Amino acid sequence: MLDSRTQDGSHLSAPGCGWYLAAPALSAVGVYGGTAWTVRSWADCPLGNDVSNDIGLQMTMPVVWLCMTLLMLLTQLVLRRRPLPGGRAAMCLALLAAAVTLTLLYRFGMGWPGRPPEGECMEGYPLFPFTGKTGPHAAD
């Protein structure tokens, strides 16, 4: 019978199995937070994501989540190959910092609507971060 204990009584565990579940979880929280922030920023623009038939932002979320998860997994791999001084706590803080940085990068990539002095915002949010706004642009 296979036992998960070694001869000295300590338990064997797969290295980092739970550790690698942090990447998709932190990415999901980051994408949700960045998307909620984007929705609030663009909600009062007629071409923003408040339009009922426009699902572009919801279709962007899985792609952004996948990209963020892959970058977080790469970060975890680097942290395992070159551990930080301070042990596991420092590695967890570094991973959390990476998630916050990627979330901010996502949010800033989605931009903010321009507010023309004479009227209403007529821009649309980008379909993917850093790809530019859709619709007519306000003069900046």
Task: Give the radius of gyration.
Answer: 21 Å
Oligomeric nature of the chains: single chain
Number of separate strands: 0
The helix-strand sequence is HHH
Q: Distance N terminus to C terminus?
A: 72 Å
User: Structural class, judged by helices and strands?
Assistant: mainly alpha
Q: What best-fitting shape do the alpha-carbon axes yield? A: elongated
pLDDT averaged residue by residue: 76
Strand content: under 5%
pLDDT < 50 stretches:
1-6, 10-15
Please, how many helices?
3
* Largest β sheet strand count, sense and barrel closure: none
Helicity, as a percent range? 40-55%
Q: Key terms for this structure?
A:
elongated; mainly alpha; disordered N terminus; 140 residues; 3 helices; single chain
Give an overview in words.
With 140 residues, the protein is mainly alpha-helical. 51% of the residues lie in helices and 0% in strands. The protein is built from 3 helices and no strands. The longest helix has 26 residues, at 56-81. It is elongated. It starts with 21 loop residues before the first helix and ends in a 30-residue tail after the last helix. Residues 1-6 and 10-15 have low confidence and may be disordered.
List the helices and strands and how they pair.
Blueprint: H1 22-42, H2 56-81, H3 87-110
Helix pairs in contact: 1-2, 1-3, 2-3
